[in-house]
Amino acid sequence: MEKIDTRGMSCPQPVLMTKKAIEKNPSSLEVLVDNNTAKNNVTRFLKNLGYNIDYKEEDEDTIIIARK
Amino acid sequence: MKEKRDIIIAGAIVGIISVLLVRFGNPKNMGFCIACFIRDIAGGIGLHRAPIVQYIRPEVIGLGLGAFIISMKNKEFQAKGGSSPFTRFILGIVVMIGALIFLGCPLRMVLRLAGGDLNAIFGIVGFVVGIYVGVYFLNKGFNLKRNYTLPNFEGYLFPIVNVGLFILLISGFSMLFFSEEGPGSMRAPIWIALIAGLIVGVLAQKTRLCMVGGIRDMILFRDGYLISGFLAIFVFALIGNLIFGYFNLGLAEQPVAHTDGLWNFLGMVLAGWGSVLLGGCPLRQLILAGEGNGDSAVTVMGYLVGAAISHNFGLASSTAGASDNGKISVFILLVLMVVISVLNSEELVGKKALGKSSN
Questions:
Q1: Which residue on chain A is closest to B145 by alpha carbon?
Q2: Which one of B143, B150, B227 makes the best mutation probe of the A interface by having the most chain A beta carbons within 10 Å?
Q3: Is the ipTM of this complex over 0.90?
Q4: Domain annotation for chain A: domains and CATH numbers
Q5: What is the 3-state secondary structure (H, E, C) of chain B?
Q6: Minimum CA–CA partner of A17 in chain B
Q7: What's this model's pTM, rounded to 2 decimal places?
């Protein structure tokens, strides 16, 4: 499973980092985000590419789990 | 789909409010203009002495406070900062100088077009070119490094300053400067302007409405979410302008605008490019500052200083056209933009050259 940490990065960096990570076309991916804007943007981006999305809350942060 | 519907509704409301603000007294095609209004505030507190553009615009105060209030309610308020603040400050100056050569921020650019001002087309083309250049560097790894969580008070300061500014305005504090003629003298009543700003601040916070983001996301991700807000503003401001009879199609004699196509174009190249590197247009930076983002608050201070520089050094355009000093500044700033862009792009200078990363 690919894992990326986008905490502290402001938009559009979290989506750009996600875009880079899926270039290898992984079947699953975990994206750690620390704000709602990044969460929504990354979610929308991955959904548009046909991934199914789940969330796991971790303290103040959210892990976006994407699976094909 | 619900998300997209919400931003279209928000854009429609922003478009309508923008026309209503003109109806209540703001200059034409300037219901909202973040660049112009911050420029007026810079004049209002005496940072520049251009007599026709001085006023404390309550709309700007409302935008920041609206975003603050709704982000507290949503639990989205987060005090953070430390992502290359001085670079952002400088980029704020560049964006403001570019916007004042065109005569409007990206939001006003859309409102100008919706009023029939075809000069805005040169601005939009420049804006898109600037965004393409910025996106090129984003794809080369441009970033200003991460931010960090800071004490809540750091985030409260921006709204506090805005409240203070509003108190100064309504108290009749005599050291402020108010235009007696020109755009700065054309104002919607204080409370109406404040409420308009609050409403748009709330909507922009909830939807993340951003002019630069709209075009950037289309180019980068083929994502039409943000641009649909942009289009809704245009359509509804256009309808409003037609209803109130403000629509005036043409190039000449447009309100607070000039007809120098090349400089309209180049001014917005700077504004678009700088805004992509900052991660959002001036409206978005105000909203983020209200949400507790200290880097955006620093960017807004960059706008304020940029406005003062623009008018003190004669860089800002007038309705007669771009000034010689303004034209020279465009070339200097384009060179500066290349330097900032290249030296922060990981694939162009190598990660090592950018310095140690602590995460």
A1: A9
A2: B143
A3: yes
A4: 2-67 (3.30.110.40)
A5: CHHHHHHHHHHHHHHHHHHHHHHCCCCCCCCCCHHHHHHHHHHHCCCCCCCCCCCCCHHHHHHHHHHHHHHHHHCCCCCEECCCHHHHHHHHHHHHHHHHHHCCCHHHHHHHHHCCECHHHHHHHHHHHHHHHHHHHHHCCECCCCCEECCHHHHHHHHHHHHHHHHHHHHCCCCCCCCCCCHHHCCCCHHHHHHHHHHHHHHHHHHCCCHHHHHHHHHHHCCCHHHHHHHHHHHHHHHHHHHHCCCCCECCCCCCCCCCHHHHHHHHHHHHHHHHHHCCCHHHHHHHHHCCEHHHHHHHHHHHHHHHHHHHCCCCCECCECCHHHHHHHHHHHHHHHHHHHHCEHHHHCCHHHCCCCC
A6: B141
A7: 0.96
